[in-house]
Amino acid sequence: MIDDSRPIFLQIAEEIENEIVEGTLAEEAQVPSTNEFAAFHRINPATAAKGVNRLVDEGILYKQRGIGMFVSTGARAALLQRRRDHFFDQYVRPLAVEARKLGISSSELAEMVRSSESVSGGTP
């Protein structure tokens, strides 16, 4: 579902990234065409192409002239690392800073995280 509060081309890129991370799109698999994305989301093909080309520029996808776009070898690992880095910067680092302010030791913090897994039902 397209979210009007964010650029559509970014959402197209994120949709493809999510499919790669989840394994729905395997490495070396062909990605739907920009026309298919445009028809499915009822958007301009140029907008869909902008999202796909962003991933080509990042090395996540590659073009085969006359055939289409494909998932690059190593794309999943690269995306996972990028998301882990983002997770660390957005969540872990601020959590550690706040814990330090509150006098919570790293072992206490680790125990809090472990106990939260049982409350939230563990890993998905």
TrEMBL record:
One Pfam assignment: GntR
CDD domains (UniProt xref): WHTH_GntR (cd07377)
Record-annotated HTH gntR-type domain positions: 6-74
UniProt xrefs under SUPFAM superfamilies: Winged helix' DNA-binding domain
Keywords assigned: DNA-binding, Transcription, Transcription regulation
InterPro entries xref list: Tscrpt_reg_HTH_GntR, WH-like_DNA-bd_sf, WH_DNA-bd_sf
Record flagged with keyword Transferase: no
UniProt name for this protein: GntR family transcriptional regulator
